């Protein structure tokens, strides 16, 4: 028996402590250092290396937003689209929440309106008045599957102030959380529209208090009555069984309060404002915590949404397996108007009961641009020195906010967007054309005329077989037109290379001389530099040697009289000694000794 208890404890310990913790990333936007916030000492990472924009001090628009003192805003001068690109996010199911803030400056537009996209899909447009409400308008929350190792969160200007972001949370949640049927989540994003905790006296934000680590921290608005009814709030301290939902995904406190209808009106009816012409996923949380109901069959209800019954004969005790047991019902419905009405009608018993409601907008995931074409555009952006005002961040073909100067077309074969046109004429571009432009293999037209683009035309440009129009006139390009491009002129393509003084090689342009590669030109340049250095060195050495010779001659001329006198005296002395010492031995002729010296 002791061994059994030991093994049970061992495996329980292993499950509790050895399983990998869910991924969590919290960023305090604009912060230059990591920050911890009360009361849970939650860690918010500093904002470094994710994006551009401007750091500044922040005002919190709502008590829901984290108590952080900085934010990051994106002026229109840096482009209409700006993004946080967060790397190393493991594959999984995530709650992604973005908090909005207000710039702490009196002269600043204190309520900017802008669009938010997650992974290239528009998920939220900030409504007017968002900063004056303590509810879901102070942030946007989405449930999304992330599969590429990154998270791309973008903010799009709409002409009503600069986007201001206070904080970002990315938290992994249970794979089965909000499971709505086969294929759920792969192709849709859930955006939280409303969460209601029925019977609570005040809203609650479940930030690390008692939310399960796989559930995330969720904000619940409180509701004490449905519509104009005098409904009865009830509560319990009993532990609620959660067998019918993802294990421990919802906090216990959610099911420990409820609303019960009264004798005056046995129905529970609630209306929720929504955006029209969208699909909504509705989640109803039910637990039989009313002490007056103790067994199966004592309370049975029908549930209708916008007048249509969606759940019949719901006996919570029977379906959940007993009292104090949770039941979660889900359905997805289209809504054409601006109101979503939920009604619970008792068919057995006299009262209806509800614990909580969640409403999610179901957003179809937008198709993305081919990754290799996005990469090619980013390379072109750097090579051409594209001005900041263009932005060119996020997905080029994002339907609501496509990149300026980029034309897109949907490719049915790949189910992706492709780039079929570039229109960047007269934009003051001063860079060069990179070889990566050939990766834009669906291009039909390019207009880069009237800029200051220099260098050669990449030969790879000729491999774009779909290209029908190419305007490069009015630049500073040089070198020979690639043969592949010249050949395209025979196939009714329209190319304009005029007003580039250095281009040659096709009719209408100068004839090319011997064509040298860039490497050859560099070699010739280096050789010429070496030759100049050698010649300069030789001239310097010759000049120094010449100066030394001239200096020596001047010294010789200056010392010549003194040297001549000394030589004459020495000669006289030597002659005398020779005459006295050797007269008896030798007699020299006048021819040998010369004329006699005069002393």
Question: How would you portray this structure in words?
Answer:
It is built from 6 helices and 34 strands. The radius of gyration is 43 Å and the shape is elongated. Mean pLDDT is 83; it is low at 1-17, 207-214 and 562-599. The chain has 3 domains: 18-173, Jelly Rolls; 190-365, Galactose-binding lectin (Jelly Rolls, Sandwich), CATH 2.60.120.430; 371-504, Leucine-rich repeat, LRR (right-handed beta-alpha superhelix), CATH 3.80.10.10. The termini are far apart. The strands form 7 sheets. Strands 1, 4, 5, 7, 8, 11, 13, 14, 15, 16, 20, 23 and 26 form a 13-stranded mixed sheet that branches. A 5-stranded mixed sheet has the order 27-28-29-31-33, with no helix packed on it. It has a 4-stranded antiparallel sheet with strand order 6-12-9-10, with no helix packed on it. It has helices spanning 2-18, 316-320, 371-384, 483-488, 518-582, 590-593, and strands at 24-28, 35-37, 42-44, 54-59, 70-73, 81-87, 92-100, 102-103, 113-118, 121-125, 139-146, 150-160, 164-172, 188-198, 204-205, 219-223, 232-235, 257-260, 268-273, 278-287, 300-305, 308-314, 326-335, 339-348, 353-354, 356-364, 406-411, 416-423, 445-447, 454-455, 469-471, 476-480, 494-496, 502-504. By secondary structure, the chain is an alpha+beta fold.
């Amino acid at each position: 028996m002791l061994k059994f208890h030991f093994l049970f404890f061992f495996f329980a310990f292993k499950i509790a402590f050895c399983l990998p913790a869910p991924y969590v990333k919290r960023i305090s936007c604009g912060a230059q250092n990591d920050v911890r916030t009360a009361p849970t000492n939650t860690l918010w990472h500093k904002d470094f290396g994710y994006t551009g924009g401007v750091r500044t001090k922040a005002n919190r628009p709502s008590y829901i937003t984290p108590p952080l003192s900085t934010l990051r805003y994106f002026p229109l001068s840096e482009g209409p689209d700006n993004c946080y690109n967060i790397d190393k996010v493991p594959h999984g199911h995530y709650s992604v929440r973005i908090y909005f803030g207000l710039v702490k400056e009196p002269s600043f537009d204190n309520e900017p309106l802008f669009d938010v996209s997650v992974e290239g899909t528009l998920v939220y447009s900030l409504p007017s008045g968002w900063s004056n409400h303590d509810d879901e308008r102070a942030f946007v929350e989405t449930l999304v599957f992330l599969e590429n190792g990154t998270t791309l969160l973008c903010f799009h200007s709409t002409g009503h102030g600069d986007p201001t972001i206070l904080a970002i949370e990315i938290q992994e949640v249970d794979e089965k959380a909000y499971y709505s049927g086969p294929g759920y989540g792969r192709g849709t994003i859930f955006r939280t529209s409303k969460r209601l905790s029925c019977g609570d006296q005040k809203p609650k934000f479940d930030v690390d208090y008692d939310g399960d680590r796989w559930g995330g921290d969720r904000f619940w608005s409180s509701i004490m009555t449905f519509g104009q009814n005098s409904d009865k709030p009830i509560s319990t301290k009993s532990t609620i069984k959660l067998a019918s939902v993802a294990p421990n995904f919802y906090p216990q406190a959610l099911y420990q309060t409820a609303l019960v209808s009264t004798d005056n009106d046995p129905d529970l009816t609630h209306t929720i404002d929504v955006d029209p012409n969208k699909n909504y996923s509705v989640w109803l949380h039910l637990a039989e915590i009313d002490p007056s109901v103790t067994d199966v069959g004592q309370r049975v209800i029908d549930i209708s949404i916008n007048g249509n019954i969606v759940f019949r004969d719901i006996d919570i005790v029977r379906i959940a397996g007993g009292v104090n047991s949770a039941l979660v019902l889900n359905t997805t419905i289209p809504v054409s108007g601006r109101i979503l009405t939920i009604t619970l009608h008792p068919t057995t018993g006299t009262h209806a009961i509800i614990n909580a409601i969640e409403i999610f907008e179901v957003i179809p995931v937008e198709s993305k641009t081919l990754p290799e074409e996005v990469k090619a555009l980013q390379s072109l952006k750097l090579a051409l020195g594209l001005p900041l005002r263009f932005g060119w961040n996020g997905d080029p073909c994002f339907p609501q906010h496509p990149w300026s100067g980029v034309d897109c077309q949907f490719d049915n074969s790949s189910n992706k967007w492709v780039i079929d046109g570039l229109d960047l004429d007269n934009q003051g571009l001063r860079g060069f054309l990179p070889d990566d432009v050939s990766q834009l293999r669906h291009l039909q037209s390019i207009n880069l005329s009237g800029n200051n683009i220099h260098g050669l035309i990449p030969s790879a440009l000729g491999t774009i077989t779909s290209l029908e129009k190419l305007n490069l006139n009015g630049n500073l390009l040089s070198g020979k037109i690639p043969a592949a491009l010249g050949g395209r002129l025979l196939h009714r393509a329209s190319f304009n290379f005029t007003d580039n003084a250095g281009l040659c090689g096709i009719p209408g342009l100068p004839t090319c001389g011997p064509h040298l590669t860039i490497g050859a030109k560099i070699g010739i340049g280096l050789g010429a530099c070496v030759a100049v250095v050698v010649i300069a060195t030789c001239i310097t050495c010759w000049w120094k040697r010449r100066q030394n010779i001239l200096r020596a001659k001047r010294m010789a001329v200056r010392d010549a009289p003194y040297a001549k006198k000394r030589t004459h005296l020495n000669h006289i002395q030597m002659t005398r000694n020779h005459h006295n010492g050797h007269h008896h031995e030798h007699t020299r002729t006048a021819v040998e000794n010369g004329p006699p010296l005069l002393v």
